[in-house]
Write a structure and sequence with these properties.
By secondary structure, the chain is mostly helical. It has one domain (about 30-165). Helices cover about 75% and strands about 0% of the residues. Helix 2 (about 35-50) packs parallel to helix 5 (about 85-110) and helix 5 (about 85-110) packs antiparallel against helix 7 (about 130-165). The chain is elongated and about 95 Å long. About 20% of the residues are buried.
């Protein structure tokens, strides 16, 4: 193979120019960890709000709309604005960490406030102990976090498809 030290230097350049260019390997979109952890920090804010007395007076339908539509929708909007690819992965990780931070924050705030709500729940069911309720929360947290991640990932994926269909990123 000729290494470029040819007696006919113009021929090598002409031959190379006539060959089809190989496509450059596509770079994978990087994960925006800053965005994911900012969205997860929103979980701590929500844990603080949920532990306040004024939130407990809200009707259940308002809480459901906030939790099932507004939060994942806001996450999807922020992800689509700040990321160019891998929408589902970003939504999944944001939902996963958001739920982990939310539940951990709720448990810490509950611990600091002496678990008054859990004690009330334990008093209503005499066969349940406080430790059983805490253990249930600890066991169910990873499962609920995975479900939250899948749900937020689905929202982000759909939002990404909508933006691409409209000619966005």
């Amino acid at each position: 193979m000729n290494t470029g030290d040819s007696d006919y230097p113009g021929i090598d350049q002409e031959w190379r120019a006539s060959q089809p260019m190989a496509a450059a390997p596509a770079q994978k979109a990087r994960i925006n960890w800053k965005l994911i952890f900012l969205l997860a920090a929103f979980g701590l804010l929500q844990a603080i709000v949920v532990s306040q007395e004024f939130f407990k007076a809200w009707p259940l339908w308002v809480k459901l709309i906030l939790g099932l539509v507004m939060v994942p929708g806001a996450f999807a909007g922020w992800i689509v604005q700040h990321v160019t690819a891998r929408y589902f992965l970003h939504g999944f990780l944001a939902g996963l960490f958001y739920n982990l931070v939310y539940v951990a924050g709720w448990l810490v705030i509950g611990f600091l406030s002496d678990f008054s709500e859990l004690r009330e729940a334990a008093a209503q069911a005499p066969n349940l102990r406080l430790s059983t309720l805490l253990l249930t929360s600890i066991i169910s947290t990873p499962i609920s976090s995975l479900m939250s991640g899948l749900y937020c990932g689905l929202f982000a994926w759909v939002a990404g498809k909508i933006v691409k269909a409209r000619g966005g990123k």
